TrEMBL record:
Keyword list, A-Z: DNA-binding, Phosphoprotein, Transcription, Transcription regulation
Modification 4-aspartylphosphate, positions: 62
Cited InterPro entries: CheY-like_superfamily, NreC/VraR/RcsB-like_REC, Sig_transdc_resp-reg_C-effctor, Sig_transdc_resp-reg_receiver, Tscrpt_reg_LuxR_C, WalR-like
UniProt name for this protein: Response regulator transcription factor
The organism of origin for this protein: Streptomyces bauhiniae
SUPFAM superfamilies per record: C-terminal effector domain of the bipartite response regulators, CheY-like
Pfam families noted in UniProt: GerE, Response_reg
GO process annotations (BP): phosphorelay signal transduction system; regulation of DNA-templated transcription
MF GO annotations: DNA binding
Domain Response regulatory: 11-127
Start and end residues of each HTH luxR-type domain: 153-218
């Protein structure tokens, strides 16, 4: 029988487009009495829908997912559900993604390669409102800060808007203008205008170059 004085486990949403990864992460988390997975998503858009339905305490998001990336989902969660904390779990040991994750509102950044060692503590720290950064990320953060102080510069601003990034990702995934319009509930003309702006801003010529750019910046996997 459950002891009524036991604390209620923290409720976690897990999002990764690889079912095997989700299974492994779920096993790690549900081996702990204070953590429980209440929902699983295999892309960023589904993660947002499940977050609205379940109101989890914590969302553990992969970066490279279809439809919406983990970073895009993190930004939307931070805006619409600030009480749901966000932890990025990724294969990318990459300073750019690390800084973008912090800017998107994530409280922690954990590498999949050491998830068995770091994930549980990262979840607990994030739920306590404390940041959790893997050692390489700490070094990157300190190095970037020192570089900015030395050079007298701020963090670079985003080149493209959040909506343009959504459209770039969907274009690169092969969706038609009409499909993108339907997914984002906007008109096809608006999609075309955003795509033209993307080509101009990024100095690119066509869909193929947009797709290559999306791969390079981690919006989609090659």
């Amino acid at each position: 029988m459950t002891d009524p004085t036991d604390p209620v486990p923290a409720r976690i949403l897990l999002a990764d487009d690889h079912a095997l990864v989700r299974r492994g992460v779920r096993l790690i988390l549900e081996g702990e009495p204070d953590l429980t997975v209440v929902a699983e998503a295999d892309d960023g858009a589904e993660a947002l829908a499940l977050a609205r339905a379940h109101r989890p305490d914590l969302a553990v998001l992969d970066i490279a997912m279809p439809r919406l990336t983990g970073l895009q989902a993190a930004r939307e969660l931070s805006r619409t559900q600030p009480d749901t904390r966000v932890l990025i779990l990724t294969m990318y040991d990459n300073e750019q993604f690390f800084f973008e994750a912090l800017a998107a509102g994530a409280s922690g950044y954990v590498l999949k390669s050491v998830a068995d060692r770091d994930l549980v503590e990262a979840c607990r720290a994030t739920l306590r409102g404390e940041p959790f950064l893997y050692p390489g990320a700490v070094n990157a953060l300190i190095r970037d800060y020192l570089d900015r102080v030395r050079d007298g510069r701020a963090l670079p601003s985003r080149v493209i808007t959040g909506r343009e990034e959504e459209i770039l990702k969907l274009v690169a995934e092969g969706h038609t203008t009409q499909q993108i319009a339907d997914l984002l509930v906007i008109s096809p003309k608006t999609v075309e205008r955003h795509r033209a702006n993307l080509l101009q801003k990024l100095g690119l010529k066509d869909r193929l170059e947009l797709t290559r750019y999306a791969i390079r910046v981690g919006l989609i996997e090659p």
